[in-house]
Amino acid sequence: MSRRQLLLLSSSRVYGYKYLELAAEFIQQLLASNDVRQVLFIPYALKDHDKYLEIVKEPLERWGWEVVGIHQFKDPVAAAEKAEAFFIGGGNTFRLLKTLYDLNLIEVIRRRVLEDGIPYIGSSAGTNVATRSIHTTNDMPIVYPPSFEALNLIPFNINPHYVDKDPTSKHMGETREERILQYQELPEAGPVLGLREACVLCIDGDKVTLKGKNASRLFIPGKTPKEITPNSDLSYLLQKT
Amino acid sequence: MSRRQLLLLSSSRVYGYKYLELAAEFIQQLLASNDVRQVLFIPYALKDHDKYLEIVKEPLERWGWEVVGIHQFKDPVAAAEKAEAFFIGGGNTFRLLKTLYDLNLIEVIRRRVLEDGIPYIGSSAGTNVATRSIHTTNDMPIVYPPSFEALNLIPFNINPHYVDKDPTSKHMGETREERILQYQELPEAGPVLGLREACVLCIDGDKVTLKGKNASRLFIPGKTPKEITPNSDLSYLLQKT
């Protein structure tokens, strides 16, 4: 049993950076240290898979990695069985999760990451599905997945693209914090990490570290939300509460 | 068979107005013209039903209407069978819809509004569940309802609290328009009305009119989104496309 290795990005696009550029150092280090030559890209969160693959290829090939799209294989489960690394991109979380269920990919990806130690990189929706469930996605429920339970590679929830209330706004809809606290009114809810853009969560075995250029906001049921600065150790979130 | 009468608010709270105040004229007119004495309030979108009832009672009782909460009845279906008017308030759309399913309220509310002509007032989540489905809610999927299909009192979708992209923002998450257009990539998607805050949609039989103090944005699959000004006739949205 190898150790799990995950890199969970709040977003692939960060203001002032090119696509994936903010996380370049972490991605390169993860892939190089695992002798990965080819990354299996999973584009199901967006409609146009070929176009999405081209976007992802650009930086990854420039950095020296081959990229193939899982949609190019007749048998996606077999492709996942042979993958050296997974990258699941952002888009609509409901569409992504439904497709993973429809194609029977949940179990194989989970096993390969948790048992075989295959590196997993997720961004936005790809970060949501790596967690225990998609209960804290920001996306519209455009399709109905058979469950909100997800890959469960980590036992807590993440809210990607976490944003604070704009104090100048006249908009009266719920803030992100209010939405997360509504979730945590439920007895089955656990911790939620609000990953602001420019945040990257690194999971290496049982060690969880916040990386990137921004603080995150951590919500533990029954406690006051708190700010988490980059380089903080969050390994305690892997303990089931 | 009486004619359906719906008042669908983008939000109960509008910047610069008290709770429900922006829609006061429309609510009073609807209830008075139907000789309503008592409104059945449905608070399931929020956790604290008693507290929510008090908030709603304040303006409605001041305007001359009695308000009872459906949660105060042992048999909610029987309460819905006897209701003179429904008001479904906002909060979390998933929690609201799941509760309506769990308590077997979908069919009875639908029948009473569409066949008996009982007035229906909805706000935010209460507006979402009045439409064909909750596919275009902004809320977090904090609980898993048995379906995203909703009361289907009108055959199109609404996005309440519709907002435009803030041109000064550095946030890179999808805009509301992008999210709605992603929904409309699906072949089963129909029209979506983006109801900005301070918008009220009035449905009287087969007549649909936009009221309130703000324009809305209409998304028809395959067409360029367009602005709809207050007092526009939108009756054509009742035709199945």
UniProtKB/TrEMBL annotation, chains A, B:
Q: Transmembrane region positions?
A: none
Q: SUPFAM superfamilies, alphabetically?
A: Class I glutamine amidotransferase-like (SSF52317)
For this protein, the Enzyme Commission number is 3.4.13.21
Task: Output the Gene Ontology terms for molecular function.
Answer: dipeptidase activity; serine-type peptidase activity
- Please list the reactions this protein catalyses: Dipeptidase E catalyzes the hydrolysis of dipeptides Asp-|-Xaa. It does not act on peptides with N-terminal Glu, Asn or Gln, nor does it cleave isoaspartyl peptides
Report the main location listed first in the record: cytoplasm
Q: Which leading EC class covers this enzyme?
A: hydrolase
Gene3D superfamilies, sorted:
3.40.50.880
Name the keywords, alphabetized: Cytoplasm, Dipeptidase, Hydrolase, Protease, Serine protease
- Record's subcellular location: Cytoplasm
Q: Name one GO cellular component term.
A: cytoplasm
Question: Is Cytoplasm included in the keywords of this UniProt record?
Answer: yes
Biological role stated in the UniProt entry? Hydrolyzes dipeptides containing N-terminal aspartate residues.
Q: What family, per the record?
A: Belongs to the peptidase S51 family.
Any idea what this protein is called? dipeptidase E
- Annotated organism of origin: Agrilus planipennis
Question: Source organism lineage?
Answer: Eukaryota, Metazoa, Ecdysozoa, Arthropoda, Hexapoda
This protein's encoding gene: LOC108743687
